[in-house]
Specification:
- The protein is an alpha/beta fold.
- Helices cover 45% and strands 11% of the residues.
- It contains twelve helices and eight strands.
- The chain has an eight-stranded mixed beta sheet, sandwiched between helices.
- Helix 4 (120-140) links the parallel strand 4 (99-102) and strand 5 (147-151).
- It comes from Boothiomyces macroporosus.
């Protein structure tokens, strides 16, 4: 287990009755555990996932374990029109969002494009969440002391240097390798948090976390990218997982801390980066991750990209 200076565990989560949470990618891995523990403590949880079948199966498991229900929200982060529709579907319910956990992601997978023609890792990990968060902002701002938790990674340090984000080469298959594209998307998660804090930080507690190296389905991406070496990489990763990987229960703790702990309000914790377990640190690429101009550039780029893809220009 990594250091746990706050001694935080699932048992530390306060009662969450009448609070509304949305968790993207909640049907598996740390997202599933996040939904499970939030529901266990009485929150009204919306599991926002692409596959209805997998989502409903996960919800049934949560119901069996906790006796609590979780709602399903259809969300495909690789389809911006559907992302927009998902937010509209939620807004029709006229509920506040006390906390949005942008958990879903893909890692170091082979090069491909989303339905909107955006490189899949940047599109899924950043652009889809950018739009979903912006569209949900009216409901977020309705809540008392709302929170947004973005899930990044220590692998933001794989972002292409020196720029961090290659805006002119997002869809250029030859310009970056799969890990650089992943790092770029994870740096974008941090910079998006900076942008949210700049625009809404007086009203919303926005923080960003690295969950740790967790034994989840994310590992499929690097294996698929390995080609003929896939069996070897799969074998190596199994050994690494056995030696150092956190379980999903452990990996979910840091985002659960940011999403539920009373410390966030008591200590006015905003715009911070956390690593396991619930430890506040500076990101490894500190200069890039705190670059306000780069964060503004990303925000403007993302807004223009979304407008273009949705035909709003």
């Amino acid at each position: 287990m990594p250091p746990n200076p706050k001694n935080f565990s699932a048992a530390s989560i306060p009662t969450l009755n009448n609070l509304v949470y949305i968790v993207t990618g909640g049907n598996t891995g740390i997202g599933y555990i996040t939904c499970l523990e939030l529901a266990r403590k009485g929150a009204l949880v919306y599991m926002a996932s692409r596959s209805r079948d997998r989502g409903m199966a996960a919800i049934e498991k949560i119901k069996k374990e906790t006796g609590k229900n979780v709602e399903f929200l259809q969300l495909d982060l690789q389809d911006l029109k559907q992302v927009q529709q998902a937010a509209k579907d939620f807004l029709k319910l006229d509920k506040p969002v006390d906390c949005l956990v942008n958990n879903a992601g893909i890692m170091a997978c082979p090069f491909s494009l989303t339905k909107d023609g955006i490189e899949s890792q940047f599109g899924t990990n950043h652009v889809g969440h950018f739009l979903f968060t912006k569209e949900l902002m009216p409901a977020i701002l309705k809540a008392n002391n709302p929170r947004i938790v973005n899930v990044s990674s220590s692998y933001h340090n794989k972002a292409p240097l020196p720029e961090g984000i290659r805006f002119d080469h997002i869809n250029d298959e030859k310009n970056m390798n799969n890990w650089q594209r992943y790092g770029q998307s994870k740096l974008a998660n941090i910079l998006f948090t900076r942008g949210l804090h700049k625009r809404f930080g007086d009203k919303v507690y926005c923080n960003v976390i690295h969950p740790g190296f967790v034994d989840t389905e994310l590992i499929r991406g690097p294996v698929e990218s390995a080609g003929v070496f896939a069996p070897v990489l799969s074998f190596v990763l199994k050994g690494v997982k056995m030696a150092v990987a956190l379980t999903p229960d452990q990996g979910a703790l840091t985002q659960l801390y940011c999403a539920t702990s009373e410390d966030i309000e008591k200590e006015n914790i905003r715009n911070k980066f956390f690593v396991p377990i619930a430890s506040m640190v500076e990101p490894e690429l500190e200069d890039l991750a705190s670059d306000e101009k780069l964060a503004d550039q990303l925000w403007e780029y993302s807004e223009n990209l979304v407008k273009e893809k949705l035909g709003l220009e």
